[in-house]
Structures are given as structure tokens and as C-alpha cells.
Amino acid sequence: MAINWFPGHMAKTRREIKENLKLVDAIIEIRDARIVRSSKNPDVDDICGNKPRIILLNKSDLSEEKVTREWIKNLSKDNIRLIGVNCLTGEGLKGIRPLMNDLLKEKHGRMKEKGIVNITDRVMVIGIPNVGKSTFINKMAKNNIAKTGDRPGVTKSKQWIKTKIGMELMDTPGILWPKLESEETQLNLAFTGAIKDEIMDIEELALKLIERLQNEYPDRLMGRYKLTELSEDPLENMNNIGRKRGAVISGGQIDYNRVAVLLLDEFRGGKLGNISLERPE
């Protein structure tokens, strides 16, 4: 499962983010609520420094609400606020403006003292690929300005987008890091689609997901695929899922590719229920 890649545009993006920080008042960082730790670029704290930041825990409709609340409590700091959102439906996005006002209250106060009433904040939007940046920006702008896609790496260069809530958003391409050292991080990113399926062995990936779910969410796995019991062997459970869904080819063999695609699509679509693959330590 070793993954080692660093496309040139990602190295360029990292440099541009640091260079453009002086142009913005704050940062909105987007992570996946199901994998809050794995969907954080480990360089982000160094890149952002002390710049005020709001962390959106996107796809919170797919995570366990209790776990998401724990993350919000665990990661909140003086210059960092968190909120659970669903960028696709817009749920939770109304909470961004009050958080931004709180983070930038000193700057707003100085501007009001100078007689400036209509204040527009300039905000940089960052996050790893396929975490929902473009979907968020489109929702905030109420039109499809930013390109979107269900595959990582759609956005290639920065652009400014106006909103109706006193913010101008700077979009940036998704940025990953040169090498993923942790197998758990690799798997979590792959499970949620942040890493392209084309560079993965999706049958092995699906087997790993079954192993994780049978240990942490056995009832969800059994309920979704109508299994009467679970084996300790993930491969046997994969076979049973294949039989239940009719993924059988000639000779009674299981079509593992079909099972893998089915399982990953249903997990990513929330059809197995609310699942949090990571919890605060």
C-alpha cells in the first residue's frame, strides 16, 4: 500500500499558499469529518502560522455526530475555530460568518473606528484534494464558479470568488504531501476517495475496509449486506457480501472487483450509516 507521489503543481501550490498569505485576513481549511486527522496536511500548521483559521469538518452528515463534537472541542484554540458542515447541501455554513467575526473582531473594530462600515474579509480556502473545497466555494458563491469533480485534483490554480456574506474567497488547488508514512493515513485517504482509485488495488482496499468495519462497525456491515454473522476472516466476509449481492461469475467464483467497487461506493455515499474512522486521542 506504499504511496509516494508529489506532482509538480502541488509543490508549486505549497509555495503559492505561503506567498499569498499576506493577501488574506484568515484561512478556511476543509477536512473530512470522517478522517479529521488523516485529511489534514501535516504541513498546514507550519504553512498557516498564526493566521486566524476556521476548520470546516465537511461531510459531517456521514460521520458520527458525537465524534465530530469531540473533534471540535479537542482542536479549538484561540485563533482556530471548528464547525461541522455539509458543503453539498449547505448545512452548517451559516455558522461561518459568526466564527469569522469572532476571529477578526480586533481588525473589524479598527476599521469601524475609521468609519468603514461595509467590511469585506479576504479568505484563503485550503485542503487536500477531493475534500470538498470547490463544492464549498460554489455553495458560498451560489453558482458554479469553481470547477468541481468527484476525482482528486480538479482545481489547478488560485482564483478569487465573491460571496454575499462579506467574504472574498481565494481558491487553491488541493495539496498533498510528498510521502505518506502512515499506512493508516494512506488507507483512510483511499477509503474516502482522496487518493485516486486508479493508483490503488481496489480489491485489496475493499478488503482492508471490510477488516476495519468488522472490527469497529460490525452491525453496520451485517445490516447493510444482510449477513447473519461475521467471520474473523475479512476475505470470507467479502465472499459473503459478493454472494448476497449476486457478484458471482462462472464456476461460482466471486467477482471481487465488482464487490470492491460496490463496497467503496456505498461507504463513500453513506449507505452504511454514519461512520467515523478516526477519533480524538
TrEMBL record:
It holds the Pfam family MMR_HSR1. CDD domains: YlqF. Residues 11-178 form the CP-type G domain. Its main location: cytoplasm. It is found in: Cytoplasm. Gene3D superfamilies: 1.10.1580.10, P-loop containing nucleotide triphosphate hydrolases. Required for a late step of 50S ribosomal subunit assembly. Has GTPase activity. PANTHER family: MITOCHONDRIAL RIBOSOME-ASSOCIATED GTPASE 1. This is Ribosome biogenesis GTPase A. It comes from Clostridium tanneri.
